[in-house]
Amino acid sequence: MTEATGQVKDHGGGVWSIQVPIPDNPLGYTLVHLVATDAGPVLVDTGWDDPTSWDTLTAGLAACGTSVGELTGVLVTHHHPDHHGLSAKVREASGAWIAMHEADAAVVRRTRQNPPSRWYGYMVTKLIGAGAPEEHIAPLIAARDNGRTRSMPGLDPALPDRTITPGDLLDLPGRRLRAIWTPGHTPGHVCLHLDEEHPAGLEGNGRLFSGDHLLPGITPHIGLYEDPDDATVTDPLGDYLASLELIGRLAPAEVLPAHQHTFTDAPARVRELLDHHEERLAGLRALLAGPLTPWQLAERMEWNRPWEQIPYGSRTIAVSEAESHLRRLVKLGHVQAVDGSDPVTYVAV
Predict the structure, then answer these.
(1) Where do the structural domains in the chain lie, given as residue ranges?
(2) Strand partners, 309
(3) pLDDT per position as a tens digit, 260-319
């Protein structure tokens, strides 16, 4: 039985979750998980780098009977700031190691090496190529060119000092925790499989810390792998769909995601998400009966609100998601770029 006290839940078997708030974000919070081990407590993710988030995390740890200073390690499911943001402060306060998959660690290293102006310039070039209108690009150009670029969330993340190797048991005495590489949301996203009998006796294969890969009521954002130093043509949506099938076959007894709430029957949720993306890809093929830029496609896609109500920053994210779907359709041979179009347009074949 799960016991809850405010923002902390005891999931049994030496596992707790803490709701660490994300400022000004409809997600509300990240579920940071605490795992007891024979060598001391370990966190799965840390939450957003914000004073209120930090205070919530430290208070939550106290409610679990421990403290930041007693933490021995941090397992990061992926590099996004609502998961990795407080890792540096945790390490500074405790000396804990930080572990991450190499693909996301490489993103962290390159992110730290590039000044904010480089990222603004990268986004300008990317959005021009996607057919974004001048009024959307103008603020980014101004930020790039006026020398007063502000730092953006996640541009100074902590460097990990350990690598999470998929398939290997992690070095956590008294625990059988194994990493599963689940790219798609990010190139190095991992789920963490606690290969132990469920404390409440639920049927299935242990418990799964799913990060953002598998959520009970949200379809995770699958955009392009953003990196100004890497022009590799990737297929994030294809990665994600293959990773989903892997988790479906695992069939954990319970899923402990990083947002919303715990749930069971992972295979059923996987099927829902696979069906959703199949339907969405079919719908996009219909929209591409005539040539469209990625921006024009994003304007016509179905979102959780009308396009004109989507905030500025979220439109950029939406276009990245449209592009990831185009990449998948091109790879499947269902869509092709129109020769000579500038900005590039795509049409169904």
Answers:
(1) 3-107+157-270, 282-348
(2) none
(3) 999 999 999 999 999 999 999 999 999 999 999 999 999 999 998 999 999 998 999 999
